[in-house]
Every structure is written in structure tokens, then in C-alpha cells.
Write a structure and sequence with these properties.
By secondary structure, the chain is of the alpha/beta class. It is built from two helices and 20 strands. It is globular, with a radius of gyration of 31 Å.
């Protein structure tokens, strides 16, 4: 009898232990994983951290579209509030609606160009501000149906051997740049250069309907304090229906070339522009 009772107690204790162990394991897995309490908890913590980091979002426009919290700054998708970079080129990521300012500074210790319209850049950018000591201010390439509300570019130097433009248009279609104030004082090519890139195979095709509305284009400042101001004020080369309206184009290093239009320009736009003898 005593032996049977002992066996019964042993079986009962084992069952209790098994039931308790199962409940405890279930509690750890679901509700009470204590930090640093074994590999399972560490894996849960790592998984949670990975999930949290991957889900962090940044507003691109007024929509709920999200991007990683730490994108590559050279090609960072712009938020509606704008972009601010130092010594890194901003490359338009594609469709944009930027109600703030894209501000890029390439200083004496930096390199390269400041802003590039690529990746099928399209939409609206309220304002672009560039300070440049190395390369071009803005490159227009693979862009279409894009409107820029205003532009301010200042160039004070360029890298050795660099052919510097305030704005270099190599391709794109239906791009409108309003109210451009371009003083690329160190430019040795042009304040604005419109010409199909890469020998007829430029990015975005032949520049078509690239229009500067209004604006001020000045290679000299205070009688050449910064200069010489480049070969041209502005130049319209191999392109279709592109050019300038209601602009003030100041003198530059080469007299008679404030507005340079080449024979390769098809239907160039030159409407109500002013070319004063001094600015």
C-alpha cells in the first residue's frame, strides 16, 4: 500500500512539474520575455529592433509614402519641407512635390556639381539655392514636366580644368525654371548652357521646351570683382523650342555674346529679353 502511494505521489509530482513547465514556457514566449534572459529573449529583442529600424518613415510629400530613416544623402528622396546638403550633390529621385527649398553648398573642400535633375525627375520644386566652389550649379538631364519656382545660384570658384556653368542643360523636356537669379561669377563657360549632351545621345533626349521665365543672369559682380564671367552670358545650342523669356542677361567676358544662339537650335525662344550694356 505504502509503495503504491509513493508511486502515485511521484506520478502526480511529475505531472505538476510538466504542467508548470509548459505554462512557464508559454508565458516566456508570449508575455514575459525578460531582457537578457537567454538566447530566445535576445532573438526577440534583435527581431524587434530590426523591425523598428526598418519601419521608421520620413514623409516625402503630403502623402503617406515612406522611405528609410537614413537614406543616402546624395540621392535622398526630398521631403515636402526640402533638402539641405553640404559637399554632396542632390540628385532628384523621380516624382517630387517640394514646397520648401533644396539648398546645396559645395565648398572649397568639396567636389562635384550641386544639383542634378535625373531619374525621370518630374513635378514641382519651390526653390533651389546653390553655393558652388567646384562644379556646375544645376545639371538638367533626364527630367520632364518639371517646374521650378525660383533659383538662386552663386559660384565663387571651380576645380582645375572644370568647364563650369551656372546651369547646364543636356536633355529633358517641358522643364520651366521661373525667376532664376544666376551669378556664377567663376564660370568659364556660361551662366546657362543649353545643348544636347553626349554627341546627340544626351540624358533625356534633345533638350525640348526648356524655358527660363524671367530671371537675372550675371557673370560679373561689381565691375568684375568676381569674374571673368564665362564665354557666354547664356547659350542656346542643339535643342528644340528652348530658351529665355523676360530675362535680364548681363554682359560677360566676351562682348556680343550675352545671348548666344547657334545654328543647331531649332525654334529657339528669345522673347522680351533685356541685354543691358552694364548691370
Amino acid at each position: 500500500m505504502t509503495k503504491r502511494f509513493a508511486i502515485f505521489l511521484g506520478v502526480f509530482a511529475a505531472g505538476v512539474a510538466l504542467a508548470f513547465g509548459t505554462a512557464a514556457a508559454g508565458t516566456v514566449d508570449q508575455n514575459a520575455c525578460v531582457e537578457h534572459s537567454g538566447n530566445h529573449c535576445k532573438r526577440l529583442a534583435e527581431s524587434a529592433a530590426t523591425t523598428t529600424a526598418g519601419s521608421t518613415s520620413t514623409a516625402i510629400t503630403s502623402t503617406t509614402t515612406t522611405t528609410p530613416s537614413t537614406p543616402n544623402p546624395t540621392t535622398a528622396t526630398a521631403t515636402s519641407n526640402g533638402v539641405k546638403l553640404v559637399d554632396k550633390e542632390w540628385v532628384c529621385p523621380g516624382p517630387v512635390d517640394i514646397t520648401g527649398t533644396v539648398q546645396v553648398t559645395i565648398d572649397q573642400s568639396g567636389s562635384g556639381d550641386a544639383v542634378k535633375f535625373a531619374n525621370g525627375c518630374t513635378g514641382y520644386i519651390n526653390r533651389i539655392v546653390v553655393t558652388q566652389y567646384q562644379g556646375d550649379g544645376i545639371h538638367v538631364g533626364n527630367a520632364h514636366n518639371l517646374t521650378i519656382g525660383s533659383v538662386l545660384i552663386r559660384c565663387y570658384g571651380h576645380a582645375a580644368g572644370k568647364h563650369q556653368d551656372g546651369v547646364q542643360v543636356l536633355g529633358g523636356s517641358n522643364v520651366t525654371i521661373d525667376n532664376a537669379d544666376i551669378g556664377c561669377y567663376s564660370a568659364n563657360n556660361s551662366q546657362v548652357w543649353i545643348n544636347n549632351g553626349s554627341g546627340g545621345n544626351g540624358p533625356g533626349g534633345v533638350p525640348t521646351n526648356i524655358i527660363f521665365n524671367g530671371g537675372h543672369f550675371q557673370g560679373y559682380f561689381n565691375n568684375g570683382q568676381y569674374g571673368p564671367g564665362g564665354a557666354y552670358g547664356v547659350s542656346i545650342g542643339d535643342s528644340v523650342g528652348s530658351g529665355f523669356r523676360n530675362a535680364v542677361i548681363c554682359p560677360n567676358a566676351h562682348t556680343g555674346r550675352q545671348l548666344n544662339i547657334t545654328p543647331s537650335a531649332s525654334s529657339p525662344v528669345d522673347v522680351s529679353n533685356q541685354m543691358p550694356s552694364s548691370c
